[in-house]
Amino acid sequence: RVRLGSMFNSAHDFSIDQLNVTVPPPSPGLSNALAELESHVATGAMHDSAERCDAPKCHAETRVALQSDLFSWITEGDIDSEPQKIRWVTGPAGTGKTAVMGSLAYTCEKKGMLAASFFFASWSNSILRRLKTAFIPTLAHQLAQHSPAFRSALESVIDKNPIVFKKTLDTQMKMLILEPLRSIKAQSDRSQWPRAIVIDGVHECEAEQYHTPKAPVRERTKEDDQEEILHALHEAAMDPAFPFRIVVASRPERVFREFFDPQRFETSGIDAPDEVARLLGSFAPSIDLHEHYNANDDITLYLRAKFNEIRRRHNLRLPWPLPSVMRLLVDQASDQFIYATTVLRFLTDSRLGDPQTLLEVVLAVRVTNLVQGSGNPFLHLDALYIHILESSPNPPLAAQWIWIVYNCIQRPLELAGPYSISSHAFNQERQRPAAIHINQWLRLLDGGAEHLFGTLHSLLKVPSPKDIDEPYSLYHKSLLDFLRDPQRCGHLYVEEDERRAFFWDRYLRVCDSKPTVFSSINVALMLFICDSGHGITGDATEQAKFLGFFFRIEPPSVLPSLDRIHVTSSGVDWWMKQLITISWPGEEHILPALERFDQIQFIRDMFVLVHMSLASL
Prior knowledge:
Blueprint: H1 32-38, H2 64-76, E1 86-90, H3 97-110, E2 114-119, H4 135-144, H5 148-160, H6 169-183, E3 196-200, H7 222-237, E4 245-250, H8 254-259, H9 273-281, E5 287-288, H10 296-314, H11 323-333, H12 337-349, H13 355-364, H14 369-372, H15 379-390, H16 395-410, E6 420-421, H17 435-442, H18 448-453, E7 460-461, E8 473-474, H19 478-484, H20 486-489, H21 496-513, H22 523-531, H23 540-550, E9 553-554, H24 569-581, H25 590-595, H26 601-615
Parallel strand pairs: 1-4, 1-5, 2-3, 3-4
Antiparallel strand pairs: 6-9, 7-8
Helix pairs in contact: 1-5, 2-3, 4-5, 4-6, 5-6, 6-7, 10-11, 10-12, 11-12, 12-13, 12-15, 24-26
Pfam families: NPHP3_N
Keywords: Repeat
InterPro entries: NPHP3-like_N (IPR056884), P-loop_NTPase (IPR027417)
């Protein structure tokens, strides 16, 4: 049932002639309860999802000791004098945590030992991989695949408590996982369960807000939600009916260091020694990839294997590279696998020359005084990032675009700027916006993206002209960490005011021009016409796709100067018509999609802009 009245309070002088609403059916064969569960599952967060098809995994014969240690703890931990249920794997950016966890999940699956997995990702277009919302339902869904008895008990719980998905994580854990496990404990042999639950990237989980910014309550932080996840896992691990071992990977940020600190229970004020011992007993010793395992040997194996592939592909003579070069690269990596992978992508994906020439370029890169004097542990990685970005014909514009591609397209901004792309009006598993739509919005003519990004293919995936409907994507979040810190990226740092001005310039040009969209081969013509201030006509499907993308943009709260606003009343009329009548291909109508979130951000912003413009006359 769609309630339109609340969307248009106090609105008048318009009508809706026809409204089509499509409600997708649940998967065939599912009960109502399991269909409801499925609707709250983040399929992209599972280790073997299509979204993670290009996710990193450990190269053969690397991280052998680490993976063996983790797998042995999972499979044989019950024979320890004090069996433990949770183990934390940590390390700085670029140390290969996600690769280790991905490989561990596949190894456990191959051995029949994987019960469930969840890979958080702040870069994902799926909001369910960025928030805690789908975490417990996704684990419960996977556990239900291993046991018909558990699945039946879970179904019964959801039937009795259909609003369980709106509860706290602790409550969801108790109702969706622990209660079914307890109910089947007598009839289930716990030794038959797979043992491992693999959870990666919890530090990338973002804050879910329940109130408007004006509400008289403190906004939740991402640390609040991350701690809630950890607490729910800990509560499960201490339950006698819970037969699994949990491996959690994250960066060593404060909330994780404090949570996994063995002394926190000893100083918590709990008087009962037995209770302190019980709480402490659930944690296995943590593993720091940077401190506990020397990655140099693994990086050497990885580089040697990849260099051999390059040598054979390009018929290079042995020895290539020289042993001294290998030692230098391993030393410059400083235990960071991301440095090695970036070097290899630079040699294979760059448009600047052959592998030998490019290897000489890498070896010639020098750490700048700015980077060297900052106390930065990523000296050589930063120097390589600076060198690659400066190979673009317009490095500052390339940095602006990278912020747009990541912060404005793939996720709401957290610390890095004033604008975002809202996911509330889109299917939550929708693919990332096509590169062509970003190009159209940012006014880049045909071939312009390749010109700007042509030498940056080792940092981000740039769709070819024939695949322009594919999205842009970054290879590793460490690039954003680099660009976020002015002490690391120097003159490539983009101030917040600059990002805001860049956004408004592109955003208002589209508002001014009332654009429709031609196919990709006519983008240049479309942009020239749009820049002349006249709307154009084109294929309705292409127009719908672009407008579906554009309506998703949430402008910054700080408005531009009045002399930049040229949206007329007729322009607002045109935009209102598009908003009311457009249906996005493959999705439900925009109105009920927006109704679910009780917000029409675009309408509000358009009216604010035009009213400000008229008031200034």
